[in-house]
């Protein structure tokens, strides 16, 4: 019996072995190597790569000399703080709408999921360049003009950013809509009936039952949104990293340091987002 | 006098019922609101596509004419002819398919095998491995990019398909973690009794996997292939770095659209119009570069949309 168990153990390992090898070769080792490179000055010579230990030099350079990097990181964080909640709330609203008994449900699903298919960097860039990603003819409205004349205030800045990028922000929410929709459809119908008998209104039902039971999905969507938003090829930080990778005076070492800083920022953003969600959840149940 | 108030009251109630409904969800107003929202948001979603489609058919005269807004005065296909030349459409399309279909297939196959291993077997370190699988999703590709680039350079596979295919074959492709998770959820739901019955009949683990588990996982296979396909197609950052000039894809060609155009049709000095790149040509190029994906999507959208609910990406 024990031998059989062992055998099963080995077969399992055999099934996952491609991943284990791949992880070691293509992820774990590169991860460590890029950490190593980030502390080096890397020179490409004809006999290969020469490294020269510079301690935290690259990291210091990123924060002190390279002004564009810090600017871009701050802008990225600002945009993320605005966009991510909107994407989540928006995809939840659409999922709730699509979960109703409506005609042409298939058609609407097809439309709302369409952006996932064409969301590649160059296509979106082309659309942004043509100014198709703003709300059609928004410039004619007084609100926009008032905002545009005075773009410095905090809220004005946010509103202006939203108006200018609304379609792109909405286009990020395809997968999230599906995840919410799937969760909504798996919800137990009996709870709904029970709540109805107890006299709960739709409004109460949403806040007291639907939303709490969706919390795990909100966390999943938060993670998904932050990650995809961060690795999107139009992201200015990523452009900056790529530019530095092929620059002669900075090169691989500095680009590695930049990507590690970026990685830590994303990890911190994820930790904060997930942390906030779980703390809120725990409070509710105690 | 009284009868009149009663009658008014009755009408009032009836209209109220018609607009607000009996329970708040079946009234006319409510329906109007829902459909209004859906159509409105749907329009915002489709707006860029409509815009692209319309502008790609506009001739130069239409583009310059402020009276022509949504409907071009003539059916003009010149933009497409030029965009086709600039993108070198058909050979680029073949190349794009080559660098997207094969990695997508490899990625799906490996995700199925690994997902099965995680779902149906117990082995030491499984929990750690599970955490690591999820962690690979969070690591931005930029972090591992440089070492992989150096590594591929040494293997001499930069500029060839292997730069995409190799990581995909070992479960480290684009978003591999998501696909492993899909298969994991899927295979976990397969009843154990089925496996035991097959074992009694003398089938080994691999036979069970290939003859029982895999055919059952068809929805997961389809969804995983389609998503890998689309994600590989849209990947321009890694493709540009790994492939260099050796291989190209439609999105990469679109990225270089303006430069290629100017090279192919150098603007003549002093002559305006004619050969100049305009919005219509650019839009035609954009449409062409997403057209194959759109076609695939409209054929397979049922699987795209339903696959996620069915394959249990959201867990149980």
UniProtKB/TrEMBL annotation, chain A:
Annotated ABC transmembrane type-1 domain residues: 73-273
Lipid bilayer topology: Multi-pass membrane protein
GO cellular component, one term: plasma membrane
InterPro entries for the chain: MetI-like, MetI-like_sf, UgpAE/MalFG_permease
Transmembrane domains' residue ranges: 12-33, 80-99, 106-124, 158-184, 205-232, 252-279
Subcellular location(s) per record: Cell membrane
Keyword set, alphabetical order: Cell membrane, Membrane, Transmembrane, Transmembrane helix, Transport
Main location, first listed in the record: membrane
Domain of life: Bacteria
Transmembrane helix as UniProt keyword: yes
GO biological process: transmembrane transport
CDD domains: TM_PBP2
Record's keyword annotation contains Membrane: yes
Pfam families listed in its UniProt record: BPD_transp_1 (PF00528)
Similarity-based family: Belongs to the binding-protein-dependent transport system permease family.
Name this polypeptide is given: ABC transporter permease
